[in-house]
């Protein structure tokens, strides 16, 4: 199975360049510290979107199963480096009311059960 988890967020005003430098410096470490079956695809800036409240940045993970979400949750308190990196990443997020935020779980069509069709 294959899933994508896509999280959208806005970054605090005035921190775009600092965030960009953090991403350049830490993406590899974030990927390397991810649990087995979880791959950091990347951290992206939105160039255009029809979604107005989803945030201007996207964090994209590839998961090998539903269970990968449990492995990820269990790994954070056990892996100090992963916890540190996620905390630093979160510190850039604009937490003010009304700022962009979104979460999606996408499942590969090849692995999806299609029902209701004759």
What tags apply to this protein structure?
single chain, 118 residues, 35% helix
Describe this structure in words.
- This protein is 35% helix and 25% strand.
- By secondary structure, it is α+β, with helices and mostly antiparallel strands.
- The model has no long low-confidence stretch (mean pLDDT 95).
List the helices and strands and how they pair.
Layout: E1 3-9, H1 16-32, E2 38-45, E3 57-63, H2 67-78, H3 80-91, E4 101-107
Antiparallel strand pairs: 1-3, 1-4, 2-3
Short description:
With 118 residues, the protein is of the alpha+beta class.
Q: Kindly report the spatial arrangement of strands forming the biggest sheet.
A: 2-3-1-4
Query: Quick check: average pLDDT?
Result: 95
Alpha plus pi helix count: 3
Instruction: Report Rg.
Output: 16 Å
User: How many DSSP E strands?
Assistant: 4
Q: Which of globular, elongated, flat, extended, rod-shaped describes the shape?
A: globular
The poorly predicted ranges are none
How much of the sequence is in beta strands?
15-25%
> Which structural class best describes the helix and strand composition?
alpha+beta
User: In whole angstroms, how far apart are the ends?
Assistant: 25 Å
For the biggest sheet, the summary is: 4 strands, antiparallel
SSE pattern, N- to C-terminal:
EHEEHHE
């Amino acid at each position: 199975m294959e899933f994508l988890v896509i999280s959208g967020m806005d970054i605090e005003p005035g921190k775009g360049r600092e965030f960009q430098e953090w991403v350049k410096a830490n993406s590899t470490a974030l990927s390397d510290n991810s649990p087995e079956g979880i791959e950091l695809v990347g951290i992206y800036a939105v160039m255009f979107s029809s979604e107005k409240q989803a945030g201007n940045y996207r964090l994209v993970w590839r998961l090998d199963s539903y269970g990968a979400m449990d492995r990820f949750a269990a790994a954070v308190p056990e892996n100090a480096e992963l916890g540190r990196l996620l905390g630093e990443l979160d510190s850039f997020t604009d937490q003010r009311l009304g700022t962009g935020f979104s979460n999606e779980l996408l499942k590969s069509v090849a692995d999806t059960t299609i029902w209701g069709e004759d």
